[in-house]
Amino acid sequence: MHFFKCVLNRQTDVKMAGYSGSGASIQRQQLETSSSQKSQVAQEELFYRKCRAAYLAVFRSSLENITSKEQLCLVLQQAGRNPSQKRLSRYWTLRTSKLSFDDFCEILKKEKPTEKTELIKAFQKIDLNGDGYITHNELYKVLTKKGEKMTPEEVKDVIALADTNQDGKLDYHEFCKLFTSTADQCQKAALEKLEADTRMRRQQFGSESESAPKNSLTQAVIPSAGTSQKTDLETTPRKADSRPSSRPSSARSRRASVSSTITMGASNAKSVKLAEPKSIQDWHHTSLKGCFFLEEDGGIMSLQYRLHILQTSTVYLTIKPLNLSQAEDKTSSWMSVDTALYIVRENERPEDSDLVCFTELRDKEKFGWKGELSSGVYYLIPFTTGCRLKRKRKIINKQAQLVYRGDNGELVLTKEFRSALSDIFEVIDLDGNGLLSLEEYNFFEQRTSGEKCDEEAWAVCKENFDTKKNELTRQGFMELNLMEANDREGDPRDLWVTLESMGYNRALEMVEACPFVVDVYCEVCKPKMKAVSLESGSKALSTAVYKSVINKGEAKVMKGNDNVIIYTYKSDARITAVIANKSNNKVTVHVNNEQSKNCVSSRGITVFAVEVPPRTNMVCQHVMPVNERQEWTYNCVESLMP
């Protein structure tokens, strides 16, 4: 029961918060009254205002970033939310280093305030005699030994706070009132403080305007898979945004620039196509599935594989999106997402691995490579530019139902939920044998909860759910999810965490993931392939991408600065630019794609800036056609900013 910690934190916040007086209180009341009467725009403004108030109750400025899971938990509690560790792990993954204020606003939209009835329901589970009270000993056992455990000191603080008459029992109805009223007091105090402090408000808004922020998470720069988000500086001014733009005006002189213009024909124009070996049916073959997952911060996560070639041989490798549609005349929505494989030779450190080759040739949605590989161990690193796998903001009119109670009162998975689970099973069944091994299941667990299932837990799983050959069947996977629904008495929130982690929206559509399949054919020996890690934005991938561009792309030296070079690589499907900074100083490169036609950038915007550390190579952007059936023109000007 993590809401106990929320109460402790909020009680401290209420005691420390300063009230700004009746004037600010009247303003707040007027705003809240008008928000219920006006349009949705006014409601959104109130929402963002509350976001700011909660954020500034924890941080001195909205320009500060959240830098730990603990900070994220604290600021969500300040906003009246009660996040579990599983929910927090959804937003703060293993690779998350920071979250901005805009990220926080998007998270807050997904986290609903805790209701009093929900809290009482949780208490009633441990109130065995139903008298509305829980003894201190019972409470101590539950809070220190089950679920998200609290320390003995924290439990003592809770008891001291809640047991006002010191009768040795907790009246949890009164405690729930305390919880909800404390949350309200925290938010009111933060709002009044924000309104009274005009300096803080100007720091937040950048002007007297109080409109919702234009730079929301869905509009933010989406970095490519090989680009570090820490170095991205968005410089595009927004319409109706009164903040001074950091983008240099055209009248401002720049010390150096490079211009590139490439006109590409439609996809049906003549080009070198991927050709399958004629005798491929006689070659040795292995295949594994995987999936690109769009992260909260815009990064892309995917499995990586180890390939063992026993003898020097001609090898044919391909990667393509995996179609899960059961209808013959319809394909999955992600089939247009671009895919690639980078093959690197194993090294002690993955980032030092040598790039051997990558899949350049294409046949419709399939990308491949054919050549000779000597005996040894290689890493296969899947890649997508992010041009077509992007966060999609879609209004869901009706949330899909996941479970319902049958005639006998038992929980049942809906047909739509079972269909989604069946597709998820298809994706995580990497070898396609119709069963889930512990290794396959753990990749699923790592993606959805950040945890792993050990051998003991797997043994319990096999005892309780349908298995075959010591592996979980599709039916067993359904049973496991039904058990989770029963554990929560039909509350679907944890089920939605799983679904959203796998790329589903609330209409049960997979919109933020792209399943794929990797095939390896070897002419003279049986190749061995194994999934080894689930990673996002790895150093090895970044290195492989920029090495491929430097090796095969066109180089242009920045006029006026020989130490900055722009490499541009083009294939039938995409154009990638890399900035090489050979100097001992950091450089900032302004990038302008405004004159490009029928193009989409992995950055999500047409004008931006990239900060490149000394002696560093960095992917600038990937560009693809919006409509492949039409001609597209890449017109990019890179300029050094003073």
From TrEMBL:
This is EF-hand calcium-binding domain-containing protein 7. InterPro entries: EF-hand-dom_pair, EF_Hand_1_Ca_BS, EF_hand_dom, Miro-EF-hand_domain. Residues 204-230 have a biased composition (Polar residues). Residues 114-149, 150-185 form the EF-hand domain. Residues 231-244 have a biased composition (Basic and acidic residues). It comes from Huso huso. It is found in: Membrane. It comes from the Eukaryota. CDD domains: EFh (cd00051). Residues 200-262 are annotated as: Disordered. The keyword Calcium applies. Its main location: membrane. Signal peptide: none annotated. Residues 245-260 have a biased composition (Low complexity).
